[in-house]
Structures
1.
Amino acid sequence: MAGNASVTPGRWIGTGWEIVKADLGNYILITVMALLLAMVGTFIVAGPLIAGLFISVRRRMLEGRTELGDLFAGFNLFIDAFLIFILLSIFALIGLVFLVLPALVVIALYLFPFAFLVDRKLGFWDAMEASRKLVVQDLLGWILFVILLILLNVLGLMLAGVGVLITIPVTVGAIAAAYRDVVGFAYRPPEARGPVIIP
């Protein structure tokens, strides 16, 4: 685990956009499916769906292709993904009780548990601890990254709400790009079927 790359939020968000732009139609469809399933299944399926989004983005980054079925692959990690989502929600709510800054700190500290879960196959608590130990090395830089991601999605909501169909996968792509740079993917495809997008 590297953990020593500098925090470069703008570049990572740009990479997230390049990933989504390369297959915009599929990513909009994946996001629509995820939002509809989250509305039906509520918080119970939110964690596995987020894991599925990471699986989809990681495949695009490593293999140069997008598969709609990857969204549902997150359900193979159901228990750990569910527990990560529940704990993050509780921690963030506790942070909000103490105003906005503590909530931002919590979100920043636990920016990568889904990435560690998907890529390193860590259990829910080990994934959360790996994220915390990584982020604490440059907490202010990661908080800035979180703020920019939040603003990006607020902009998406302002665009009649439909903008989030693009900003959500861009956000996942940006976090995945940050994980790639700072940690490095453990998974390598046996045969890349297209060019890797990340610069």
2.
Amino acid sequence: MPLTFVRPMADIRVGILTIREKWEKYLEQPVSVFTEPYLSKKFPLVRKDNNIIITGSLCPTEELVREICSLQPGEALLKGDALLAIHLSKRELTMLENSAEYSDQFIENYFETDLEFNVIRNLYDIFLLNDKEIRADYELLTKNRISASLNSSNQVFGNDFFIEDGAVVNGAVLNTLTGPVYIGKNAEIMEGTLVRGPLALCEGSVLKMGAKVYGATTIGPHSKVGGEVNNVVFFGNSNKAHDGFLGNSVIAQWCNLGADTNCSNLKNNYAEVKLWNYQSKRFENTGLQFCGLIMGDHSKCGINTMFNTGTVVGVSANIFGSGFPRNFIPSFFWGSPSSHQDYDLSAACETAKTVMQRRGVEFTSTDAEIFKTIFENTKVNRRI
């Protein structure tokens, strides 16, 4: 949390693809998710006669997929004490759904893997592991394919780049010696942009004129990004279109950062950064010296907003005014550091509807129900 308030863990983007999309590529078939009850209507579980249930935070590799697919009914795969996957019948899966907590009653045989792979255990793992995951996804998506060409207006160091059809790149400097650069279908890099890989610019997204982008950065589908960014993951449909610095951060969907928004990713005393933890309801040590902003879905900030090092923003927050906001901003927060109130739920839904319509996406009654559940469940946070 707050990134899993509106989505299952498997729909978090890290690298070029979401975790779910990675598995679908490797397995060459759709996958569904077993998630929280209030999300299950939007993200339904498909039950089959035989079901392999995989931990949603687990990023696949070819070898790991092979081990998991070899599981027989009643078998489970472990890494140490961590359960990675289990093979269940439809009846057993239904029993698991109806159970208050996981039980090992369905497992007859356990197997432990010695493979190495990436798992998203913490918020900051998303940007920490983004370099490795961009490289892995790049290999997966471009294998045995030929890139579209770059025109002569661009300057390129190295040749580790791939451009999908419809992408436009003019007058940019791309350094692929530090990592691959992937430019998605119908994406655009405007003139004067400076890029150091690894970079994933996903479908329909835009890097604005004069942007400075350091890897490992992912700009999810249909986003607009300008200014200076360093090791940031944008899930998609979010904008940081103007000048200002953002580093070591994660921005979920349908967010907007006002002009000249800046975020500190390093404390003045170089001390370890702490992040708000929803489970413990307190700030927890990260072990990191560099950590910026974690922003939940549908949240926005006004022009000249200044975020402290290690700030966590919930869902549908609206932040404006002078001064530094607190390091934890709860969901449905409306206002400034000195004066704030609850964001009216109906108004928040109406804004979300308007924002999504601009991209041709419907804000459904199911989305409104999810908003209502989050609003009710986070009341305690707004009283802190």
